[in-house]
Structures are given as structure tokens and as C-alpha cells.
Amino acid sequence: MGIYFNPSNESFKKDRNYKIYVDKTELLEYLNELVETPKNCVAVSHARRFGKSHAAGMIDAYYSLGCDSSNLFENTKITEHADYKKYMNQYNVIHLDISSVWDFHKEDIVEAVKERIIDDFKEEYGEDLNYSKDINLLINDIYRKTNTPFVIIIDEWDCVIRNSDDKALVHQYLQFLHSLFKSEESKTFLALGYITGILPIKKIWDESALNNFCEYTMLKSKPITKFYGFTEEEVKELCKKYQLDFDSVKAWYNGYLIDGIHMYNPNSVVQALLDQDFDSYWKNTSSFASINTFITMNYAGLKDDVMMMLAGGKVRVNTSTFQNDFSTIASKDDALTALIHLGYLGYDADRKKAFIPNYEVASAFESALQVGGWSEIAKAISHCDELLDETIDGNAERVAELIENAHDTYTSILKYNDENSLSCVLTMAYFTAPAYYNIIREMPDMKGFADMVFIPRKNAGFRPAMVVELKYDESADSAITQIKERRYHGALSGYSDKILLVGVNYDAAGKDKKRHTCVIEEWPGDILEYREDRKEG
Fold it and tell me: What pLDDT is attached to residue 80?
């Protein structure tokens, strides 16, 4: 038993011992179907903190000869499959984390990796082997000696591709991978190849080191989608167990739509459960700076698209032009596709559109804008908390002023002169409100649609519900009247705390006067009483 060769099951043991554990062991059943077949090489490229490394530790525990994991897998889903013990702890396993070696060996990464493997081989086999051989020949000798095939796991395989401009080094690294996964010897000794990364596989020069891999990405990962990230049902169960408001968790962390399945970032959900609070945990990832790098690229239409997504919209993106390389971004579509792979955008494959998946990611964009080149937009977003406070306090004049500032900031980007576009600007103006409110646009109720309904979350403290009606070239008073006449606030039936009715009007013809006006009224008591009064009238 070594660190890299036939590792222990310590990683998976820690996951199983942790109080928050979600069973993903059925991934092993899928991998078992591939073991010792022509399709035995799998590449998973997902965003950081989506469970790739946890899965690698589970694969160690299941296949490695270096441990006995029968007890660890008791009462897991894999045990429901009749042949699950057939493969358990039956293989020689090599597990490498390339990023941990890269940190110290950027110039001699291949030799450093080989040295680690060979050191473990020596510990197991002493001087019985010829360690001067090429690594694939050496592995093949062990296979012939033991008659035991190999499972080779490489975590962060694309670390070298993402971080090195040295073509000779990249070539050497890819040749090393070729020897493990596609050499003539590997066809004999390799039972299963499993690699993880952020980027999909990129073909470099005439290299074909990894073209025999089945790839699963943030764009498409069927049939293994549900094994990475948390599904909505899994999150619901966790929220019930740990007594955390599911609607708030959904607003903060839901939104990744992969193969039609809504997936959550596991790290963020777990941290929220532990803290019993919500925050943007993505800001702590090493890829955070990439947001600013890509969104500030001066490609035609990129800023418009980012602003449209920040306002809650979706934008069409051609993902096929992306070269699976952050250093060759050449268009708006490339930049957006890179952000999809990094997890900073969701992707609707049916409509081929990108979007900001949840409030956690939206707040990460907000932070990136603060340190980037979009100073006017960052300044406008910085006023969002003030706008929300002033609305709650009923300061209609200041609310109108702040909305006007937002209008002036976003007008050249969103290009609007109608009520629908004003709604987009208002969404941006209340950009930070989803931290406290479930916001529903054009919420249906009885006779019509309200433009925006703000329903307080359970963790929001004492904040009133709000119904916001937008008008174009009419008056703020008429917006309030419409709310009452159409009973939009009836959608909050049974809500007994304070409700604010907020009317906003945009006067397109205003030149020497303020173009935005606002009226805020408080509606106390149960709305059902209001309905009864209206019936009697």
C-alpha cells in the first residue's frame, strides 16, 4: 500500500464518516460496465468543487488492492447491485493528483510524477523490477508478474495544459499520458482509466494521447450527470434534515442545468448547511479571477450579453468554437463557453443559451466587477443595498433617484424605451435583493400580472413583502391604482405582515426634470380582508 500505488481508502472513509454525506456510489456501477472493455477510458471535466475529487477517492476505495473497503460500502446504493463485490479491491490502482505535483515541479513535471510512482513500486517490489524502463513497460511488467490489471486515476489532469505555454513540456506530458492510456502495453494492463479536470480534452498539434476517452462536461454529461453535484431531491432531503430553508438554498445555489437535471454545487450547499447561513463560496476558488479576465475582454457584444444575464436573461452562445484552452479565447462565444466550463454560467443545451445560474454566482460577478474595468456598473451595483433599504423605509424620492441612476448606467447597454426594458433595469437596481427575497417577475394573480413580487425568505429578518408595478409614460400613482384594482397583492394571500405597494413610472419625454417617479404605500393586515372589502364595494 502506497500513496500513489494501491492507495488506502482514507479519503472515502473521511467522506463516509462526515455528518453530511450524499451517496454517489452508483457511479461505480456505471464504471464497472466499462472495466476491461474497449470503452474503458473516462474523462470528467466539471467546474471546481463539483465532487470530482471525492469521486476519485471513492474509486480508490472500491478498486484498490491496498485496502479492504467492504465495511465502508455497507448500506450504500452500490450494494443493491448483485455484482458489486466482483470488482471490489481487485485491481492495482495508480492515483495521481497532477496539481499537487505541478506546484513544485513546473519544469520537470513528467519526471517528478514518474519518480513518485516508481518510489511506491520499489516499496512494494524491491529490486525485482527494471526501473529504468519506460513507465508503460514497467507497469506492464508488474501486470505480467501479478496478473492483476490496473485502474489509473488522474485528478486535475489538465493542470499542465491550463498553466503551461511550453509546447515541448506539454508534448512530453501528453506522451506520458499516451503511454498510460493508449500505448500497446496499456491495451493489456489497463482495466479502467479515469481522469478529471476543468477543461474538456484539447487536441494539441498531432497528439492523440486522449482521443480514446469518453468525455463528460458541464455542457453534457449524460448518463453520469447525477453523480456529480447534488440533485434537487438530494438538497431537499439535506435541508429537511438540517432544518435549513430550501427556497433560500435554491435561490442561492440552484441553476446548473445539465442534461435537463437541475444540479447544485455540493461544496456551497454543504457549507451553507454547516454555517446555517448563505454566502458566495465561489469567491474562494482559484478560478474566481477568471470572471474578470473573461468579462472584460473587448469582444463585440460581450458586455451586452453579460449585462443581459445579470438582469436575469439568457443569451445564445456557440460553444463549438471554444478550443478547450483558456489561452486561445478569440471571441465572445469563447469567453462565455469558458465561463460555462468554470461553473460561472449555466447552459441550457436545448436552447443553446447561457445564463447566470443563481445568486451565489451573481454575487461573484458583482465582486469581480468591483475590481475590474466596469467601474460605472460596479458603482451602480454598489447602491443596490441602499435602494432596498430606502424602499423598505418608504423613501420614495430617494428610490426614484437611485433608479434613475441605474437607468443612466444601464441604458446604453440594455437599450430600452419600454416597460419591459424598465423591468430589466429594475432587476439590476435591486441586484442584491435575492439574498433576502424570492423575486417573481410577472407573477400571475387573478386579473393580471404584477411586474415584480418580493416575497421575504425565512432567513431575511423583518422585511416586508413588496409588490412593484412598472409604468411607462403614465404615472407612479396609476401603478399603485393598478396594483389595487387588479389585486396583484392578492398573490400574497394569507401573508399577515406588512406589504409595500411600490409604483414606479418612467417618463421618456422628461428632459429638464427627473424622468423617474415613485410612490410607496403600506398595506397592513391580511390581504384576504382587502379582497372581502372589494367584494362588498
Answer: 93
Give tens-digit pLDDT for 414-438: 654 555 566 778 888 898 898 889 8
Q: In the block, which residue shows the cell 476558488?
A: 285
Q: Look up residue 490 and give its three cell numbers.
A: 392578492
Residues 6+ apart with CB under 8 A from 140: 185, 188, 189
CB atoms within 10 A of CB 233: 10
Domain that holds residue 81: 10-225
Q: At what angle do helices 167-181 and 109-125 cross, to 10 degrees?
A: 30
Please check whether residues 358 and 423 belong to one and the same domain. no
Note the pLDDT tens digit of each residue in 255-290.
898 998 999 999 999 999 999 988 887 665 555 567
> Is 2 a member of any domain?
no
Domain total of the chain: 3
Residue 162 and residue 62 share a domain: yes
Which residues, at least 6 apart from 81, have a Cβ–Cβ distance to it below 8 Å? 26, 29, 32
Q: Which residues contact 493 (CB under 8 A, 6 or more apart)?
A: 526, 527, 528, 531
> In this structure, are 486 and 523 located in the same domain?
yes
Instruction: Please give the C-alpha separations between residue 225 and each of 216, 230, 239, 298, 458, in angstroms, as whole numbers.
Output: 8, 10, 21, 34, 31
Residues 6+ apart with CB under 8 A from 243: none
For CA atoms 15, 81, 8, 44, give the dihedral sign.
Answer: negative
Half-sphere exposure of 377 (CA within 13 A, CB side): 26
3-state SS class at 126 = coil
User: Strand 92-97's sheet: what is its strand order?
Assistant: 92-97, 150-155, 190-197, 41-45, 214-217
E strands, 27-113, in order: 41-45, 92-97
Q: Decide which of 307, 335, 370 is a domain's last residue.
A: 370
Strand pairing class (437-445; 92-97): unpaired
Comparing CA positions, the residue from 330, 324, 107 lying closest to residue 204 is 324
Q: Which cell numbers hold the place of 190?
A: 489497463
Which of these, 435, 296, 289, 301, lies nearest to 362 by C-alpha position?
Answer: 435
Domain boundary among 370, 391, 408: 370
pLDDT confidence of residue 527: 43
CATH number of the domain that 129 lies in? 3.40.50
Q: Give how far Cα 268 sits from Cα of 235, 248, 249, Å.
A: 11, 13, 9
Helix axes 109-125, 135-146, angle to 10 degrees: 20
* Average pLDDT of adjacent 10-residue blocks, the chain of 537 residues: 89 94 96 95 91 93 95 95 93 96 92 96 91 94 96 95 88 93 95 94 70 92 93 96 92 89 92 90 63 77 84 91 86 93 92 93 82 75 92 94 86 58 80 88 54 82 86 84 72 76 81 77 58 37
Domain assignment present for residue 123? The answer is yes
| Residue 41, phi then psi, degrees to nearest 5 | -120, 125
In this structure, what C-alpha cell is assigned to residue 311? 438582469
